[in-house]
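Follow-up to my post from last week.
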Amino acid sequence: MIIEFVLMAVIIITTILALMQRDLMKMVVIIGIEGLGLAFLYQRLLAADVAITQAILGSALIPGLIIITVLKTRRMQE
Amino acid sequence: MSGDAVQLWSFVTAGLLVVIGLYAIIFMDNMIKKIVGAMLIGDGANLILITEGFKPGSIVPIISEKLFNEGTNGLFQSFADQASNSLPYALVLTNIVIGASTLAVLLGIAIKLYQRYNSLSVNEIFKEESQ
Amino acid sequence: MNSELIPLMVVFPLISAIILNVLHGKDKAVRYYGTLAMLVIIAIPLLTVYGNHLFGAHSEISTSPQTGIQIPVIDLAIEYTFSFLQRVLVIILAVIATFAVLIHSGEKKASGSYLSMIMLSIAAVSAVVMANDIFNMFVFLEIAAISQAAIIITMGRPDAYKAAFKYLMYGGVAGASILIGIALLLGTFGVLNITDLHNAMAGQMSNPIVLTAIGLLLIGWLFESGLFPFHTIKSNLYSSAKPDVGALLQTETKIVLIAISIVLIRLFGGFSNMSAVMLGLSLITLVFGGIMALVQKDFRRLVAFAAVSQAGLVGLSMGLGTEAGVSAGIFHAVNDALAMSLIFITIYVLYDRAKTTEFSKLGGLLTKAPTLAFLQIIGILAVSGIPPFNAYQSEYRIIDAAFSSGYPELGVIVILGTILTFVALMKGFYLTFLKENVTITAKDRIFMTNKIPRATMLALVILVIVCIGIGVYPSPFYDRISDAAMLIVGGW
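User reply:
Got it. Predicted complex:
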């Protein structure tokens, strides 16, 4: 019962934290945590297949793409 | 029943995600943060759809092999009564992939713009848009 | 009964896109395959029989109690419809895309990835026109946005990246807005098929969730059609591309405008406020587009804003909500796509020879390229609604529809807006061809010849013939569009 509310709080807090970072690598890791929390929440809302997809895309693939972008540009926000 | 509270607060979380994403797109200066904002809006829309398919106190809408092999009319009927609505889940699967492709193209454009202007700040890049 | 060739109109361009991407780099193979694929793409809508196509699944049937006959209740399938309206829109899209592909094949280097993105946009817009299912339409709108951004990246001005970035950002937000609107409708009614939603909408006039969904869907419609708050984004898109594919992009935008307006009117035709909002914002676009076209210093941007202004005119006519308004709007979208393509392709020839389209660097080209000037004048007259051309027939019908809906002021504003477009285009023509530019230095001198390449000349001649043909004999064309409009508005 309470695990859904914990997950929702985690999602919102990590999102706000991520957008306040100046170091873009830290932001990517925190966005990865948010994607994983969202996948957990999908499973608790009884969407099993969507949870697997979100876990792969939202916490591995998309942060991977953003990390490649940050490596090719600059790491600290000016 | 706490299932209804879960549904209500899940809608609220999705709304908050959309608002935070919109704030990031409008007010943040770094291009990569704007792109992350676009991703957050997509995540909020997905969460709205999934919460709509959720029925409090029900079971995952996947038929196991054993149930399928011994399925008679009565068993499928009771499964259909108990499972959550699976149509919105199909829409979300498509939308996650669409969001990922748009994000990939946006990140590629961001790399190209950095190579040309040597800066990721939106004020810097778009400042000569006079018309 | 399934009409079998309908999915081919979406599947074949998709497969061609993959093949062309693989062939990228091999010049001759790309040229030949591109031309062959476009001939097939024009042939398929000509050969397809009218009908519906249900993908998979089956109708939920119930048995009539008296006679025992089984009747379909809901179609639990994704459905594509194909009637006269869809055939006309898909053929026009295919023809203008063929011009873009042929003109590109005639250049020095043929790029496979560029042609594959054109194919992808053809597949996406064809599916938007044919889909009878609101979620399918959303998916293909997103695909169309990505492919249009990719078109201007692969072959455009060096600062096309900035236009593409803004376009995709706004496109992502508008797409999410449409999706949340669809989610609200799904949650309230439980179906996604447009026919079923129309039936379920009967008593729901003051349901706040439905009103919110309408608002969100309208925001998505405004972005996809390039109307008021988003008019600069679409005009940036048209002017950042090479003008031959700019013709294709503005055709796609008008077709998508028609398709989404038809869906909105079928679903929400009973809500009078929605038509009023559509009409108001299109009116603002008509006027703003014309005014911004007057002050531009670059010919491509001027024509792009003229195209946006004409899209506002189409939206205005659809926003009237009556059967006459809808049929006049569809007719004008078709005519205007053809006439604007004529102007875009003449600007392509100018850009190809002179390598620039800024007015400060052009001037006095009438003696060097009289054929091009003549064709451009025909195009400008065609867009502005001068009698023997097609836009005259459609604008006349729009003003007629405005009068019969009880808004005679709209007729006056439509005429003023058209005059604005005409003046802006004539200003461009004057500064390019007629006025001698005394500020050109010797190193900026342009070498302009009167020779137009074969493929481009063929495209221009075909467009002029079609414009004059529809202008002189509009009836066989317009009457069937009018029948289709009667079915659309008829539910209300």
